[in-house]
Design a protein that fits this description.
Alkaline Phosphatase, subunit A, 13 helices, about 20% strand, about 400 residues, 2 domains
Length: about 400
């Protein structure tokens, strides 16, 4: 069948402040450091592969079974979109627009005109707090809750009893068409909620992303006639471009269920997985025990996935940014990310040091699949790891 490559992104699993963390007000952030000593944290599979052998992490095993590296983000941002685009070979020199004081009046007025509904909030806000604070007024007035964060996002929250999910998605599509050019935010996000006050968010979130401005790894894989299989919000992050199917998920466990099911299939190409709970449910909520327990749960599922790997399979485990749950901030943090490279044809314990860009992952995947990387960024580390 040919080679299969699996990338699993542990969304927000940073491993220590990046050299330019001060530019992002993230000095001292260390997501892994914040959770590794919690009683809920127990990750023997990741430890055995070499997670703690990565430069700057500490506490590694004597003979790690995988290759590993510390990844540096070269893009000017610390959000999901820019992080994933860089993993896929696109370095963003300019940050996507953010709105620390809310969106300008002309955007909100035009959005209200397009939807026929007014707007509440229009401020950076926690997703759980915003429905607690504005949910009752939303139900009483019919106005939509619009909010943002430190990321480049335009988020729309609405109660499913008042605004059916399909209608909320339509509003998001209108916002996506509106938010272009200098206001081209990375993602417009539907945030449906339900129940009685203080309300509960539902798993029917949906991201409407900006298309990458240049070709990325999924584009090149698909153009080569190979499978390019997304799991989780990968499809949305790339606006569906370069994907040969769509597999959305409800949570991390569902994501691993789908990844394992895909590993049982015959295909040649790429399976690109995002596990969002680390970030959305625990990092942004400053929940250290929850984050630690989620990593433990992933480690158990990783133990199920690894035996599914075939002779010519490769697995890369990495992250897209940090989100230290122990700091006062609930925002993403500018951190190094881990890279663990697993395969039966690879040497054991190769320390690849600190890499200059997340895009080295893209270059390596394309190298494995025999695809020219074209204008995409990064340097392959495959040759350094092959057991010849």
């Amino acid at each position: 069948m040919g080679n299969r490559v699996f990338i699993i992104v542990l969304d927000s699993m940073g491993i220590g402040e990046a050299p330019d963390a001060a530019l992002f007000h993230d000095e001292g952030s260390n997501t892994l450091g914040a959770i590794r000593n919690d009683p809920c944290f127990d990750c023997p599979n990741l430890a055995s592969l070499g997670l703690f052998n990565i430069e700057g992490v500490g506490g590694g095993v004597k003979s790690p079974s995988a290759c590993f590296a510390r990844m540096t983000e070269a893009s000017m941002g610390k959000d999901t979109t820019i992080g994933h685009w860089e993993i896929a070979g696109l370095i963003s020199k300019d940050p996507l627009p953010t709105y620390p004081n809310g969106f300008p009046e002309e955007i909100i007025d035009e959005f209200s005109r397009l939807t026929g509904r007014g707007v509440l909030c229009n401020l950076p806000y926690s997703g759980t707090d915003v429905i607690r604070d504005y949910g009752r007024e939303h139900l009483a007035t019919g106005k939509l809750i619009v909010y943002t964060s430190a990321d480049s996002v335009f988020q729309i929250a609405a109660h499913e009893d008042l605004v059916p999910v399909d209608e909320l998605y339509r509003y998001c599509e209108l916002a996506r068409q509106l938010l272009v050019g200098k206001h081209g935010v990375g993602r417009v996000i539907a945030r449906p909620f339900t129940g009685d006050w203080p309300y509960q968010r539902t798993p029917r979130r949906h991201d409407f992303s900006l298309e990458p401005p240049e070709k990325t790894m999924p584009d090149l894989v698909k153009e080569a006639g190979l499978a390019s299989i997304p799991v989780g919000k990968i499809y949305d992050i790339f606006a569906g471009r370069g994907m040969t199917e769509c597999n959305r998920t409800l949570n991390n466990d569902d994501g691993m269920d789908k990844a394992i099911a895909i590993a049982n299939r015959d295909f040649c190409g790429l399976c690109f997985v995002n596990l969002v709970d680390f970030d959305m449910t625990y990092g942004h909520r400053n929940d250290v025990p929850g984050y630690a327990a989620a990593m433990t749960a992933f480690d158990r599922r990783l133990g199920e996935f690894l035996p599914k790997m075939r002779e010519d399979d490769y697995l890369i485990i990495t992250a897209d940014h940090g989100c230290d749950p122990s700091t006062p901030s609930t925002d993403h943090s500018r951190e190094y990310t881990p890279m663990i490279f697993v395969g039966k044809r690879l040497k054991k314990g190769v320390d690849l040091g600190t890499r200059k860009t997340f895009s080295d992952i893209s270059a390596t995947v394309l190298d494995i699949l025999g695809i020219e990387k074209g204008e995409t960024a990064g340097e392959s580390f495959l040759e350094l790891c092959l057991d010849k």
